[in-house]
Specification:
Layout: H1 2-27, H2 33-38, H3 49-52, H4 66-75, H5 77-91, H6 93-100, H7 104-132, H8 134-153, H9 158-186, H10 192-213, H11 219-237, H12 244-249, H13 253-264, H14 271-285, H15 298-316, H16 319-324, H17 326-332, H18 337-362, H19 364-391, H20 398-415, H21 420-428, H22 431-485, H23 494-504
Length: about 500
């Protein structure tokens, strides 16, 4: 009778807002009676309570285990593949144009094919990860990446180059959604930002590797090197668990608890967290899977504006153009491109490590606004530098100004706007809208990236100074957008964040 009464009370609570109930449960120091009834345990304190606290901090939050660290490292190996793909077009430009006799327009098409492929992959990324699961989606993505690298390495004309780059882009587009979502779903809430930011760190590692070695080896060998992390990633994926939240959504409670136990440690009582996840999934199941058109309901509009807005502003600030064509920016400014890209490669990993460390200390909002401020200032300095160059003012110093500006812009971007929009995207959407909302947000990012990478060279030919004035203005608008609309999600569980945004929409 007591168990039946408990179940009836839970059903009634869900009808009036189970999500708030599950959040209140999560804030208690020990699981409530219902949670223990569900697992077949007594409502009294667990007999091994002292042992269960071994991997928990003083607030009852699970500490970071070796398993979570190793699993995250395996997952972000896919981000390393993404970084290799992004960095390839900058360092391979001279070799490909010389050997295959491509025009500048043909090579610009090749460079932009990655973002076009990313757009295609983004359209299907949410649905694929929802149907196959996060882990199998990463397997699926690596098939495209590996095939793409092989096509590029063996290409004899522009068509094969473009096909390979397109396939690589599709894999990268799927990765851009599934990797931050998976990490956000497995990491403890107090370090979730740092762990998801590791996605950006590993992208920078791949980018740095290609920026350095691309100055010394041929573009075909570089393509084969890009294939190596893809193979390693596939092998390592066999040894990681599926996302507990995805398993709970599919009704696989036993597997969900097993995966959660593996992540949190064998001496930790995971009933508290498992019950919260289960209750939240039960609540979201009462709402049918939301389509793209249904996203524009009042209750979802605020997270949708935040997600789409951040991705759009990230791209319209010119980030893709600066990174994809860094070599040409240095050359246009009269600075040796080999030195410029090598210095960029040297500092990319340390700056990304700084971002990983401070993201859960400074908070998302502060870091985002600081990043946009730096991007805006350095874009403005680039505009002034190119203006000086066109008028012949300070010809000896202009190349140095351009080098400092590009370097400062890329550092500012990597500290915030490069990775934080993906972190926030993985946090703000409930499970029942994560597929459609995540797809729309990711498509927005890649569509904006394609527009910028395809038009960047034309904009630079039109007016280099004017181009960076536009990018600087977008960065200024980004600061206002973040200040007025983006909430601070640091230290909150995914369920708490989604409840906060849901309440603010009413």
């Amino acid at each position: 009778m007591e168990r039946q009464k408990s179940i009836m009370e839970r059903q009634k609570s869900m009808e009036t807002g189970l999500l708030r109930k599950s959040l209140s449960i999560r804030e208690r120091k020990y699981p409530n009676e219902d949670g223990y009834l569900e697992t077949g345990l007594s409502s009294k304190r667990h007999p091994n309570h002292k042992e269960s606290k071994k991997y928990q901090n003083e607030d009852g939050e699970c500490s970071v285990t070796t398993s979570v660290c190793l699993i995250t490292f395996v997952v972000v190996t896919g981000s390393f593949c993404v970084g290799c793909g992004i960095g390839y077009s900058s360092v391979a430009q001279h070799g490909i144009i010389s050997e295959l006799s491509l025009s500048v327009a043909e090579y610009s098409m090749f460079g932009s094919m990655l973002t076009l492929g990313g757009l295609i992959g983004a359209v299907f990324s949410g649905k694929i990860s929802d149907v196959l699961g996060r882990k199998r989606t990463m397997f699926f993505s690596e098939v495209f990446c590996a095939t793409g690298w092989l096509c590029i390495a063996l290409a004899q004309d522009a068509l094969w180059l473009d096909c390979g780059r397109l396939l690589l882009g599709i894999g990268v587009g799927i990765f851009s959604y599934v990797i931050p979502v998976y990490i956000a779903e497995i990491a403890p809430k107090h370090v979730r930002g740092s762990f998801v930011f590791a996605n950006q760190l590993m992208q920078n590692c791949g980018l740095s590797l290609f920026f350095i070695i691309g100055n010394f080896i041929s573009w075909r060998i570089l393509s084969f090197i890009g294939l190596v992390p893809c193979v390693l990633h596939v092998v390592c994926l066999f040894f990681i668990p599926e996302s507990p939240r995805w398993l709970a959504k599919c009704g696989r409670d036993k597997e969900c608890r097993a995966a959660l136990q593996h992540l949190r440690g064998h001496d930790v009582d995971i009933s508290h967290e498992a019950n919260t996840i289960r209750d939240t999934m039960e609540f979201t199941k009462q709402s049918s899977e939301t389509t793209i058109m249904e996203l524009f309901q009042k209750r979802y509009i605020i997270p949708l504006i935040i997600g789409v807005g951040l991705m759009l502003l990230q791209q319209l600030s010119g980030s893709s153009g600066v990174i994809y064509y860094a070599s040409s920016l240095f050359e246009k400014g009269g600075f040796p491109s080999a030195i410029g890209t090598s210095v960029m490669a040297t500092i990319m990993i340390p700056k990304a490590m700084i971002g990983t460390i401070i993201v859960d200390k400074m908070g998302r909002r502060t870091l985002l606004m600081a990043s946009c401020s730096g991007m805006g200032l350095f874009a403005l300095l680039l505009s002034v530098s190119y203006s000086f160059q066109s008028f012949g003012i300070l010809p000896e110093l202009t190349p140095i100004f351009i080098f400092i500006s590009v370097l400062g812009y890329v550092i500012s971007y990597a500290l915030g706007m490069g990775g934080l929009p993906w972190i926030i995207m993985s946090e703000i959407f409930p499970m029942n809208v994560k597929v459609s909302a995540g797809t729309l947000v990711t498509v927005t990012n890649w569509a904006g990236g394609w527009v910028i990478t395809f038009t960047f060279n034309f904009l630079m030919q039109w007016n280099a100074a004017g181009t960076f004035v536009i990018f600087s203005t977008v960065s200024a608008v980004s600061i206002l957008f973040i200040y007025f609309l983006v909430p601070e999600t640091k230290g909150r569980s995914l369920e708490e964040i989604q409840t906060l945004l849901s309440n603010s929409a009413h």
